[in-house]
Amino acid sequence: MTNNNMMTLLCIIFTLCIHIACTMDAQDMDVKENNMAKYTYLALGDSYTIGEGIPLSESFPYQLVRDVRKKSMDMEDPLIIAVTGWTTTQLLSAIGKAKLKEEPYSLVTLLIGVNNQFQNKDIELYKREFEELLSISIQLAGNRPDRVVVISIPDYGITPFAQNRNPDKIGLELDSYNEINLQIAEKYNTWYVNITDISRSGKGNSTFLAEDQLHPSALQYKLWVEKISETVENKVFK
User: Using CA atoms, how far apart are residues 13 and 26, in angstroms rounded to an integer?
Assistant: First the structure.
């Protein structure tokens, strides 16, 4: 082999090595970026969001995250702003005091209102404050209403806890509350998931309730998540 041929061969080999190295670096960068690309989730609400009466890990936000992960979607554990007994007023106050990340959340769920009804608050107050909460939720989702899911209020009137508290009246009043949150969700072009029918389908079924015979069990939340997850996977993260 002549010196010229040898030099040509070495140049070709050197060029190939550089190409392979660059390709591997690019692939490594893609892997790192994919590993860092996590969905974030903010869940706003009350006892129904924290899963009163059952382990937090079995609440619907945590079950939802696990279900989403099964679909190969990388989602962080949920950040939950919720306390048993909170009304819309208290949730608004808590959000204002919370130290939330500046980056928009990939998903925000909002379920609030049962304590407004239980405490006989003016329904006009609910309408006004729910709209404010939904507007804030959209802002926290990066001004993307398509990343916000409103969840209807379940009907606790069918539970043993409410049997001496006029269950029919409770159901009718919660229907009014859910009509309001549905209308506002539609006004702001967010997604809406009705889980009230699921709560009512469990009437007389003790497996649907936690030990307090008032709040949902992990099983009932699992049925909620099946509906919520369908919206999240096919609409929010389409």
Answer: 20
